[in-house]
Amino acid sequence: LAPIVNVADDLLTKPIPTNEWWGNLIHTTTEDINTVANPAWSNPYALKLPKQAPFGLQACYSYTYRQLADEVDGVVRYYLHEFHNDVTLSASEFGSTKPDYEVYSFSDMGVALRTCVAGKGASDSSSCMDSALVHGMAFVSTTYAGLTPRIESDYAMTLLDSSTPGKYVVQLANNQTWVVFCSDTSATFSVDGTGSALAAAAGYTGTVRLAVLPENGGQGVYDDYASCVVRGGDVSVQSRTSYSLDWETEGSGCKSSGLLHFALPHQVEVMGDATPTQSSGAIVLHSSTRGQMVGQVTTSGSWTLSEPESEDEVDFYPASKPSADVVSQIGLLSTLQSDIDSTWTLDTGSWYYNGKAYQKYASLCLMAADSSVVGADTTLLRSCLSKLQTLIASFVNNTFSVPLVYETTYKGIVTSQVFTSNDVNVEFGNGVYNDHHYHYGYWVTASAILKKLDPSWSGMTQLETMVWTLLRDVANPNSDDAYFPKFRHFSWYLGHSYSHGVTPMADGKDQESTSEDVNFYYGMMLWGKVTVNQAVEDLGSLMLRLNARAVRTYFLMTSDNTIHPPQFVPNHVTGIFFDNKADYATWFSAEKYCIHGIQMIPVSPING
């Protein structure tokens, strides 16, 4: 249903990340497997593993190719970026035959990749290029062990400067200027007869690194940082209010000049000793859809970021409760009584819609436990809980007509309907790892409410087993877990989740409903609280606050928003937010109330 490509055999026995920025590099379809390669956005670069020549690691500075939809009353509904082969790190030995691409390790921030002469394999390192693809990397880099490097472009090249050994400054016909650094300064490169490739004169052993010059940036802005290469990165949770991104680096300059790495706007706000965009000498490039990125220099190899708690932390109830006058004026108690007495049902065919219903009914019980609404009478609460517990028997026992199953290729919990229907689109693509944080967030949050209200319920042990399993599927913090990948949906670099799973997307991964994203981590925090698991509560709380910051920064646009083009900002919500495109739309309707409403559900204390 969703073929995996370009992954080393030994990794296929482990949990494979399903919702990462680099997913397009390993996801394909049976129709496209030999012909179509989709980019992935590390930002500030977009990267591709082409299936047609020129082969190698292809890079594009997307911002150059931004396109806006036609304006209507001064507003555009979307903007996106074309992909062009600005530069491809290649080798003469590849010729006209596609090399073997092989992702051979994962980190929280990216992947390590081998690109080998077809049929040679990783055992012959002299036939391979080795690259690390990492969120925010300042350079596109690869290490050669004998191949003859070629840097190929769609555009004619002009060699502006080669006076410094190991450094070449190249201007492309699209007006971009790229700097090339070679760790072996004795190597000789020149523009070849095609006029669009910088080629080495002989086989080469060492690293070649490329970076696009910022607008009005001098040719020397990257010089101090060329000898520190990022190889990956992992998140480390320090406390309930702080975390670090720890970069794996190599090279002689890492401890002296330091690692240059690009940060996004929400990171600069909360990073210790951050270099802001406006500071003198700042190196600034543009991401595709998340605004300006500014280079940060660290000799420690780590960024520390803080997400402080607010004065009024949200719990099960809002910070302020309704007064007796308000309860009386709006007839809240009688409405609550009517809703609880109504007929409750679950649709046995949908984990998403059933989860929404479960959280809605559980929220009624939560209101029935609020003395500001019902006073001291517990009759309504007891009735509500009894109905709720009867209703979810099929969840607790996993006996819906389409039960959840454990999928063994990527390794995770999916609806069995994907296999009975042989259709990747059923249940919004749950079977191919779309939207698990949306779907399962309802079950987690509702179950936290139930456990708070009736912790001694006879079905609680089975309920806890189900909830812990769903939490592990979506937000497993353990990189050594043999059954689930680490943090399936959540990007600690971007600050929010990706909803799209293991099918390729031309514009990269996306997220639509930020409020349902928030709902999952809200439920995770509450579940940690009611199970007295401080580690889970703290982790959920931290992820929730980081998520909220990213949502405010990128998805919900006030009139002074500078992340997105000014013609897009009057939409006020991004709609479907891709790595390469912001589209004022939804997957299910073009109606304005849907585009905005999907950012509001479910109504809860955290989304209020």
TrEMBL record:
Q: What class of enzyme is it?
A: hydrolase
Which molecular-function annotation in GO is an example for this chain?
glucan endo-1,3-beta-D-glucosidase activity
Could you tell me which residue ranges the Glycosyl hydrolase family 81 C-terminal domain spans? 335-606
Catalysis performed (reactions): Hydrolysis of (1->3)-beta-D-glucosidic linkages in (1->3)-beta-D-glucans
Q: What is its EC number?
A: 3.2.1.39
Q: Per the database record, which ranges form the Glycosyl hydrolase family 81 N-terminal domain? A: 13-320
A GO BP term, please?
A: polysaccharide catabolic process
Q: Which InterPro entries did the record assign? A: Endo-beta-glucanase, GH81_C, GH81_N
- Entry keyword set: Carbohydrate metabolism, Cell wall biogenesis/degradation, Glycosidase, Hydrolase, Polysaccharide degradation
A Pfam family recorded for this sequence? Glyco_hydro_81
Q: Which family does it belong to?
A: Belongs to the glycosyl hydrolase 81 family.
Q: Which PANTHER family match?
A: ENDO-1,3(4)-BETA-GLUCANASE 1, GLUCAN ENDO-1,3-BETA-D-GLUCOSIDASE 2
Protein name listed in UniProt: glucan endo-1,3-beta-D-glucosidase
Organism encoding this protein = Phytophthora fragariae
